[in-house]
Amino acid sequence: MAKMTNTKGYRRGTRYMFSRKFKTKGVIPLSTYMKVFKRGDIVDIKGNGAVQKGMPHKAYHGKTGRVFNVTQHALGVIVNKQVGNRIIPKRLNIRLEHVKHSNCRLDFLKRVQENAAKKQAAKEAGVTVNVKRQPAPRRSAHFVRTSN
């Protein structure tokens, strides 16, 4: 019996990665094309199997990067890639079907707005307020029972 070797194709091992999920097959919604991207935006890369043009390599699937260039149909994205013991910033040109805005900064931006509101209220009240994040305090002492 002959032993088969690994295939070396560009899309090797992407059977499930680039397949469309349940109830999302078919025409791509127009909202995908109506999104506005600007330089400096943080985006998530997720290959869309319905569009082969401008698709990122499987190594960048699920990675997050920063937009450095915007064209009519594509984005230039800087992504960090680990190669051996070093991290290299890679510049990718990806069509906008394969990227979406990242939610990674939403929590930070929400905290900035809350802190600004706290500072404003404290300034009007004439008191100082600490807006730094604090680690969780110690739990109060209690007995641990093994039987009810």
Strand-pairing-aware structural class: alpha+beta
Q: State the helicity in percent bands.
A: 10-25%
Please, how many helices? Answer: 2
The overall average pLDDT, rounded, is 94
Strand content: 15-25%
Report the strand count: 5
Give the CA-CA distance, first to last residue. Answer: 63 Å
Spatial strand sequence of the major β-sheet? 4-3-2-1-5
Shape: extended
SSE string, helices as H and strands as E: HEEEEEH
Computed over alpha carbons, the radius of gyration is 24 Å
Report the uncertain regions.
none
Q: Largest sheet, if any?
A: 5 strands, antiparallel
Structural overview:
This protein has 148 residues and is of the alpha+beta class. The chain contains two helices and five strands, in the order αβββββα. It has helices at 31-34, 106-125, and strands at residues 42-45, 64-70, 74-83, 86-95, 99-101. It has a five-stranded antiparallel sheet with strand order 4-3-2-1-5, with no helix packed on it. The radius of gyration is 24 Å and the shape is extended. The protein starts with 30 loop residues before the first helix and ends in a 23-residue tail after the last helix. The mean pLDDT is 94.
Short characterization:
The chain is α+β, with helices and mostly antiparallel strands.
Topology:
Layout: H1 31-34, E1 42-45, E2 64-70, E3 74-83, E4 86-95, E5 99-101, H2 106-125
Antiparallel strand pairs: 1-2, 1-5, 2-3, 3-4
